[in-house]
Amino acid sequence: MSNLGAGLKKQDWDLESLPKFEKSFYKEHPDVTARSDREVDDFRKSHEMAVQGRNVPRPVETFDEAGFPQYVLGEVKSQGFERPTSIQSQGWPMALSGRDVVGIAETGSGKTLTYCLPAIVHINAQPLLAPGDGPIVLILAPTRELAVQIQAEISKFGKSSRIRNTCVYGGVPKGPQIRDLSRGVEVCIATPGRLIDMLEAGRTNLRRVTYLVLDEADRMLDMGFEPQIRKIISQIRPDRQTCMWSATWPKEVRQLASDFLNDYIQVNIGSMDLSANHRITQIVEVVSEFEKRDRMIKHLEKIMETRTNKCLIFTGTKRIADEITRFLRQDGWPALSIHGDKQQQERDWVLNEFKTGKSPVMVATDVASRGIGMIKSRTSPFPPPSFVSFEAPSPVLRLCDNGTVLDSLPPPVGVYDSSRLCRVS
After folding, report:
1. CA 315 to CA 337: how far, in whole Å?
2. How confident is the model at residue 380 (pLDDT cuts 50, 70, 90)?
3. Which of 48, 169, 337, 395 sees the fewest Cβ atoms within 10 Å?
4. Are 288 and 411 in contact (CB under 8 A)?
5. What is d(CA 336, CA 308) in angstroms, rounded to the nearest whole number?
6. Domain check: are 209 and 356 in the same one?
7. Which residue intervals define the domain Helicase C-terminal in the entry (predicted)?
8. Alpha-carbon dihedral 233, 237, 238, 242, rounded to 10 degrees
9. What is the reported pLDDT for 256?
């Protein structure tokens, strides 16, 4: 993987000769202007917002205040959303202003729309694509599943503008992706490795990219994509607008922001240290190894008393995911598994079976731990508190029941009462 991108041609950017482009579209709504500084501070405090940077725009409280054109606003309202989420309230004015943006927010906070809607506005303000042009908007994501989810959002909200997009990721034939890129797309959603393959093969270029998104930046770095990200960004004009979204803010992500973002503004929603969604109730049950499967069945029986419920079980390894799936199916449960060894077509099918409720029990490795839109089921990573010494929690069982996460861990050192439950708020 280290040689990936070695064939990319070094770009020598002359800003004076590059075509000019528009990236500032935000005009503050009169209702936002009329609010006092105290009211703005109170709103941010009540929504656990913290902002940093020079001249950060005020948050908006309604969709109308965001100042989106009617063609975008109509799509949003048609989906039945009542009001912006916290990250959207602050993130939309920031992204629409044309500034470089860092957004730190928990998984499931609505950050996909926070950058997708401004991207649509950005595209419609640019000259039309000419033959041979690459995309205007590039969105990098760590996994195929997240990339597909982002594509669904772009397709949904960009259809009135006839914005074309494609999703470029590994594990599937390149032919359809090459065809889309050759025809021309305004938006390319991609995982780093496959995108570099396309660039090295001359199937697309990034000369027209003026709006760059790094989604789940911390996850991409965890997966070792930093060299690929740096090579990709070197192919994009330096005066682009860059938006970086992350669930956490470790030093590696801070360094990436420092290297590639200019005079950026930042919003943090909730804690910067945790990626867990605080709207979810987490229950930790300490059990011995031999009790796990019996306890799992008992929890399943309780959860599945409601026919519409779904259950997502996380394991530490692919082997254990398959073992638990076989165990559940032998016991009569309609379970399917998903992990990185499965072909992309099978993974898509399993996800669809789970989402539609045809198979309401899914066993997964961390391939589905973040960024996957689940219907009536939410997931949340749970790191044990740093002041508690746990043995290796393998495998970790997470049963998701409409906002409830159950974590099954082996007993911590010195604890022998396996019947104890602790609720994490």
Report:
1. 10
2. very low
3. 48
4. yes
5. 17
6. no
7. 295-425
8. -60
9. 95
Report the pLDDT averaged over residues 299-303.
Answer: 86
Over residues 248-282, the pLDDT tens digits come to: 899 999 999 999 999 999 999 986 554 455 556 66
Alpha carbons 362 and 146: distance in angstroms, whole number: 17
pLDDT at 405 over 60: no
Top pLDDT among 2 and 37 is at 37
Tokens of 261: 């973002």
Asked if 265 and 52 count as a contact pair (C-beta separation under 8 A), the reply is yes
Q: What is the CATH number of the domain that holds 206?
A: 3.40.50.300
Torsion from C-alpha of 221, 224, 225, 227, nearest 10 degrees: 110
228 shares a domain with 287: no
* Residue position matching structure tokens 């638990």: 324
Domain range for residue 149? 30-269
- Does residue 390 surpass a pLDDT of 50? no
* Whether residue 261 sits in one domain with residue 316: no
Is residue 77 domain-shared with residue 195, that is, in the same domain?
yes
308 within some domain: yes
Q: Is 289 found in the same domain as 258?
A: no
Instruction: Kindly state whether residues 300 and 169 are assigned to the same domain.
Output: no
Model confidence at 315, pLDDT cuts 50, 70, 90, reads confident
Q: Are 139 and 39 in contact (CB under 8 A)?
A: no
Beta bridge partners of 338: 364
Read off the pTM: 0.73
Q: Output phi, psi for 59, to 5 deg.
A: -75, 155
Flag whether 12 is in a domain.
Answer: no
* Tokens 């609505």 -> residue: 110
Q: How many CA atoms lie within 13 A of 93 on its CB side?
A: 24
| Domain match, 289 and 395 both | yes
Map tokens 């997470």 to a residue.
398
What pLDDT, on a 0 to 100 scale, did the predictor assign at position 272?
A: 54
Asked whether residue 6 is domain-assigned, the answer is no
Per-residue pLDDT of 209-234, as tens digits, reads: 999 999 999 999 988 999 999 999 99
